[in-house]
Amino acid sequence: MIPAAGTPMNRRAESKVTTGPDLIHAQLQITGVKLVSGLPDDWLVPLMARIDRDPQIVQVRVARESEAVGVCGGAFFGGAPACALMGIAGLLASAHEFALFNNAHQVPLFILASRRGTIEDPRTYQVAQGLVGLHYLDALQIPHMTIDRIDDL
Q: Please, which of 9, 10, 85, 118 could form a disulfide with 38 given CB 3.0 to 4.6 Å?
């Protein structure tokens, strides 16, 4: 993530954040995100609960992840920096929106998605999604990065 102009790169030393959700929330604040939209994934619930307590970030819950793409696109047109939160299943289900809205019309979208189906995931039914998730993003030519360690936040 790129901080706003004039913002120190590491504010973590100034605050007492200790969990992944706290660190991600702090980075969303530093980068100036004003709106978050998403559908809870069990790995994202703690982050969404943390954002709910922040009066500076509006959180819009949706019934389908593709709706989060639309909400964040609307925020872009309204001048509000936004972030979509979803699990990898939602990412896979949003192909049409990415291909049309983001790729064809060049509307930027910042997404935080949980990468399910890895070896540490206790839900074995997520394996198929984990196997194709990054290849899917590559096929749609969506730039992405994976954060595997809390120190990389």
A: 85
Taking the alpha carbons at both ends of the chain, their separation in whole angstroms is 8
Write down the H helix ranges in the chain: 20-30, 45-52, 65-77, 88-93, 95-97, 127-139
80-89 residue pLDDT tens: 999 999 988 8
Mention every residue, 6+ apart, whose C-beta is less than 8 A from residue 29: 54, 56, 57
pTM of the predicted protein model: 0.79
Helices first, then strands: H and E counts in the chain: 6, 4
Residue type, 89: A
- What is the DSSP secondary structure assignment for residue 151, as one 8-state letter? G
Query: For residues 80 and 32, what is the distance between their CA atoms, to the nearest angstrom?
Result: 9
Strands 82-87, 111-114: pairing kind = parallel
Query: Can you read off the two tokens belonging to residue 99?
Result: 């291909």
